[in-house]
Specification:
The protein is built from 9 helices and 10 strands. By secondary structure, it is of the alpha/beta class. Helix 6 (about 175-195) links the parallel strand 7 and strand 8.
């Protein structure tokens, strides 16, 4: 799918190194516009390193990552800043500032990157919090929120600048199945209502198949498969089959354990 006119981002033979050790090997695929692309694989497969290249946190050699035909590897500082204004990032932990209220956290990008008056920033902040279902918690501190609410607050901050591209790192990590499903619905709503291009990094199979228009499966820094959810599910690649089976088994065990805890709690 790389080099396709419908691709917003093209990865072309991307290689990456840490201290001379190669961790990504000749990755090549495209990320379609206004779709949810899920990048998945076991821990340590290279998902996070790939994400760092895509958001400009790790230097990329010229000729390897293109956004609408522009080579990220040749961007100067001003061009990189302009690119970052087009993107939003939801980090795995939410990455909220603990000393700020929820609304102040969401306002940070607007205060840093715009000259909007305080009242306009306040209104825009409330709109983003309403979008993620947290309008009643604007004056709460992050420590007063549940894990799922912190993720939603982090998402509201990622949306503060109305990004064209949204990157989401492990949205379901640490969340119970019900909360995770709610966050998945929110991601697909953003795609459908705002027409965002969304890239989600996850190892959670249930979440991946719920939200993905396109799937990318990685293993040990290499690309195993790219395709629709149905194409990945029916893949005959031995490593893909092993990954799908193992993650499905682990997910079933974790879900059964969660609901068993709920039942025990109800009986007390």
């Amino acid at each position: 799918m790389s080099d396709s006119p419908s691709s917003l981002i093209d990865i072309r033979n991307l290689n990456s190194y840490y201290r001379g050790r190669q961790v990504l090997f000749d990755l090549r695929f495209g990320i379609p516009r206004k779709k949810v692309t899920v990048i998945m694989g076991v821990s340590g497969c290279g998902k996070t390193t790939l994400l760092r290249h895509l958001i400009g946190l790790k230097w990329t050699s010229p000729g390897q990552v293109f956004v609408e035909g522009s080579d990220i590897g040749t961007f100067n500082e001003e061009e990189m800043q302009n690119y970052r204004r087009r993107i939003g990032v939801l980090f795995q932990s939410g990455a909220l500032f603990n000393s700020m209220t929820v609304s102040d956290n969401i306002a940070v990008p607007l205060k840093v990157h715009t000259n909007l008056p305080s009242e306009t920033i306040r209104i825009m902040t409330l709109i983003k919090l309403q979008l993620v279902g947290l309008s009643e918690f604007c004056d709460y501190m992050p420590s007063q929120l549940s894990g799922g609410m912190r993720k939603r607050a982090g998402l509201a901050r990622a949306l503060a600048m109305d990004p064209e591209i949204l990157f989401v790192d492990e949205p379901s990590s640490g969340l119970d199945p019900i909360t995770a499903a709610g966050l998945d619905r929110l991601i697909t709503e953003l795609r459908d209502t705002l027409g965002m291009t969304i890239i989600v990094v996850t190892h959670e199979l249930e979440s991946a198949f719920r939200i993905a228009d396109r799937m990318v499966v990685m293993d040990q820094g290499r690309l195993l498969a790219v395709g629709t959810a149905e194409e990945i599910r029916s893949s005959r690649n031995e490593r893909v089959v092993q990954f799908l089976k193992r993650e499905a088994d682990e997910r079933r065990v974790n879900t059964e354990s969660y609901f068993s805890c709920l039942l025990r709690a109800d009986r007390k």
